[in-house]
Write a structure and sequence with these properties.
Elements (H helix, E strand, L loop, with lengths): L3 H8 L2 H9 L10 E3 H8 L3 H14 L2 E6 L2 E6 L1 H14 L1
Antiparallel strand pairs: 1-3, 2-3
Helix pairs in contact: 1-4, 3-4
Length: 92
């Protein structure tokens, strides 16, 4: 279920919007996602800061996480993103 308020809150951060953009076409061996450590390295921010940003986007439903070996891979939740965009289009 989509929570538009949580999504708006998550999208208020430019860092989070940038992470979503990176995940549109991730570069790496993990298919449609990126390991959190790769996001951290690319951003130049601390691991704890990136973890907080990723957690907020997971809570909002914008990202999904899965474990692959020792990595936590995050990817976009296109279903929720699409529903949010559709709601914006119809409501504004």
């Amino acid at each position: 279920m989509m929570n538009a308020d949580l999504i708006h809150k998550a999208l208020a951060s430019p860092v989070r919007r940038e992470i979503l953009t990176w995940l549109k076409e991730p570069e790496g061996a993990f298919g449609s996602g990126l390991p959190i450590n790769a996001i951290q390295a690319r951003s130049g921010l601390s691991q704890s800061t990136i973890s907080a940003h990723v957690a907020a986007m997971i809570e909002a439903g914008l990202l999904v996480a899965r474990h692959v070996g020792q990595f936590i891979i995050v990817s976009r939740n296109e279903e929720v993103i699409g529903a949010f965009i559709a709601e914006l289009r119809s409501g504004l």
